[in-house]
Task: inverse folding
């Protein structure tokens, strides 16, 4: 698989800035620092059909009705820094979606661990049994 950054997704990304809440004082009310990144998954020329399917299934909660993958950043006070954060998160999301999960191999507990567990249960049972009163009637 080719490195994601090498494919240069930058030309397929759409950015939109708006005013955001949070830190910034009076600056918040007049400067558009919130950045919204949109990426059209279906019409991307840089993803293969198989990769598109993976992204659409794994990132379904982040994809809107029009088929755009959305990433929103508004933590920083500058628009440029928020834009950089959006791009970083976008690449991280793609990387996670396109990474194949390893198959889980079923294993059995070792003999010694089974033995340890059973010995612990016996000790606990003895402890509880010793607490009861066993007088002669």
Result:
């Amino acid at each position: 698989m080719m490195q994601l950054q090498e494919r240069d997704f930058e030309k397929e990304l759409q950015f939109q800035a708006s005013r955001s809440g949070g830190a910034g004082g009076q600056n918040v009310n007049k400067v558009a620092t919130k950045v919204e990144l949109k990426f059209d998954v279906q019409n991307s020329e840089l993803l293969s059909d198989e990769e598109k399917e993976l992204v659409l299934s794994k990132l379904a909660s982040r994809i809107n009705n029009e088929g755009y993958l959305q990433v929103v950043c508004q933590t920083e006070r500058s628009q440029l820094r928020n834009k950089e954060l959006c791009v970083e998160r976008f690449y991280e999301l793609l990387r996670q979606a396109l990474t194949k999960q390893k198959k889980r191999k079923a294993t059995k507990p070792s003999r010694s661990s089974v033995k340890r567990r059973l010995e612990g249960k016996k000790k606990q049972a003895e402890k509880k049994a010793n607490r009861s009163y066993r007088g002669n009637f």
In short: The mean pLDDT is 84. The beta strands are 13-18, 34-40, 68-73. The first helix runs from residue 27 to 30.
